[in-house]
Amino acid sequence: LLSNVNNQSIINHVPDFLSITSLNQLKGINPTMIRGDNDLYSVMDQMMAGEINSLPEEEAADLSNKYVSSDIRMVPEIEGYGTNKSIPEQGTCGNIWNPLVRADSFTESDISSDMDCIPPTNPWVEVARRRCYEKFKKKFYSTFSWIASNRNPQSKATDPGSLWGKMPPHSILERFYFACKTKETVLVLEKRKKALSTEHLPQTNCEDMANIVSLMSIQKNKDLLIDPILISPFQTYPTSYSMLRNEIEFQFKREWRKSNKGNVDILDLFFASSSFQKKCMKICREVNELAIEVSRDFIEDLKKKSGELSSSSHYSRRNVTQKKGIPKLTFSREQDTDRAGYVETFSVTFAGLSFRISRQHFEKLQLLYDRFNKKSKSPAVHKDLFHSAIFVLLARYDLLEGAGLQSSLNGSVFDILLEHFDCRLECFASPLNSRYERFCSAYVDTDRKFGSLGSFFNFNFEGLKSGGCFQANPPFTSDFIHAMCIRMEHILTNAQLQVPFMFIVFVPAWKDSKGWQSISKASSLVHHLFLSQKDNPHYYTEGTQHRRMKGRYRMASFDTSVFFLQNHKAKEKWPITEMMLQELRNAFALNPEGKTFPGAKVAALKTKQDIEGERNARRVTSKETSKKHMASDIPLGKPSKGKKRQMLSTKRRHISSKKMKKLVSDDSQSQLNILSSLGIPEAAKGANISVDIAKTREKGRQRKKK
């Protein structure tokens, strides 16, 4: 501590400083704040028998402000931060993000207002929310499967009703969840704007359990807050009925197309039938009752936990920085069985729940937390708050089973967008899969501490004075994509914005979906790049990459559409060129785990013909190599274990063939006599045929040897 003190007067009076027992004397000293002052403050508090902690609130707050560090970090800032250079992505153990790009053009005023409509969270809240949502999912799956299985037994295989048994409830719930939460957020924000003029709304920045419980009660009574995970009852938001039915119809079309039963237009008559409508209404009623039950249980669990925490002492009187209930962090290092090296992971555990995260993603979250959370009372408090924040983050995203809904582009695609369009912001990302330090995400309450700007739908794009280019890879939900398109069109067609605005959208090419059609017909659409799954194989990053130790990338299982939407100013600043489009195709076709980047900007794109040509060339090369080895008298060294097994197997086959030949050919005349005496002349002929077969096989082996 003393080695870091620059003020010599403090060093000379350290004994006097530590012996202070008067509050007035303590206030008179204004030392230079350094790392570790809070530890000294804690020691002084103990020496004063807790006098500091027993001060009046105003004096204690004034005193504690003197000991709040302005810049506390867990890890040092990375060298080159702010140079905005691109970093090639190099597989699992390589660069999983670009920490050099600085998005300082986005300020706190640009952050979306949806933070005000979401109640705060902490580890205890996430544990209770997870328990309730798991209950909701389990009952949703069983209820949907039970209703779907009750179909007419006389229905034919060609009848669309036969597809009810093939409907995956988890896929329907994933897409319905995103569409439902997006609509709920918009409606709640509209209600809050109207309520601000008539009543005072509570603050949502306090993470105390008692405050959270009161906020959740307000949500239940006035619908001024929204739960980020639990689906609200359908009576509150009637549009949930139509959204759930839309997802069921969308899944029917996919299953009908998979079964190759013809044009999906035939399903329109089926959707209008009374049997389909009754079954959908029954599913909606059951889901609504389940949402009411889960919402009630969640509030009851929070009240119970709040009572337990208030009755027990979770804060030490002598040291306010020592708080119980902090998640535990453990590190593990295991030998990698597939390649040389080790697999290093961290596990965050709290209240019986444990979540694993790779070392690379853990270090990324550490750096992001340091950048956006600099005001902590001490390094110990800063570290504890980080442990709580990372547990809440992992618990929240672990609830979303749809890994495909959380997938992102590979790093090489982001580098192309950064080079040509200076694209530094993702419209739909998370702290776990974001490419840059700033991004828009679904959960501002858990993600804001790691650089999130809030929801895309509420972000203040109009307030950006210089405009910008933004990348969008939304969840693959039709209603969600349609809502995104409406928001983008509102920005790009705003005549008052005389700055360049551009959106580059990556979505599956589901041409019959409502979302795809809305983007393809947008007035601001400039170019559409189509990537075929068969002719242009391309890769995405796994949505669960943070906990996958192997295989961060997966080949797209669908055709991809890349839409370029621009206003008139963006068309002048960022023209769409064929060279850029080819570079984008090349970048999309690269798998960093299969091929490291050689440093070239444009990699060769392999088509199906190129791949087939390489396979044929390898076959010819292997044949020529085997011929050379057979013609050479030079020993090739010790055979491998596999070669030894092959040689032994060949030897056994030769021995067995010799035995068979000897068994059939020796004394064949006596065998023929015996068979004839038994009245089986045809069997004797068969023996002679077996002899001929054995001779033919032996001749074939001799030819192969030659």
**For the largest beta sheet, what order do the strands appear in spatially?**
6-5-7-8-12-9
Derived from helix and strand composition plus strand pairing, the structural class reads alpha/beta
What ranges have pLDDT less than 50 throughout 5 or more consecutive residues?
1-69, 314-322, 595-608, 625-640, 657-667, 680-687
Overall 3D shape: globular
User: What is the rounded distance between the termini?
Assistant: 85 Å
The helicity comes to: 40-55%
The assembly state of the depicted protein chains is single chain
Count of alpha and pi helical runs: 23
| C-alpha-based Rg, rounded | 34 Å
Beta strands, count: 12
Strand content: 5-15%
Largest sheet: number of strands, sense, barrel closure: 6 strands, mixed
Chain-wise SSE layout:
Elements: H1 8-12, H2 14-18, H3 23-28, H4 37-47, H5 57-65, H6 123-149, H7 169-196, H8 209-222, H9 239-258, H10 267-271, H11 274-311, E1 328-335, E2 342-350, E3 353-358, H12 359-372, H13 379-398, E4 408-409, H14 411-421, E5 425-429, E6 439-441, H15 444-447, E7 468-472, H16 478-492, E8 501-508, H17 514-520, E9 525-531, E10 539-541, E11 553-555, E12 560-566, H18 568-573, H19 578-588, H20 608-631, H21 641-665, H22 668-677, H23 681-705
Parallel strand pairs: 5-6, 5-7, 7-8
Antiparallel strand pairs: 1-2, 2-3, 4-10, 8-12, 9-12, 10-11
Helix pairs in contact: 6-11, 6-13, 7-9, 7-16, 8-11, 14-19, 16-17, 21-23, 22-23
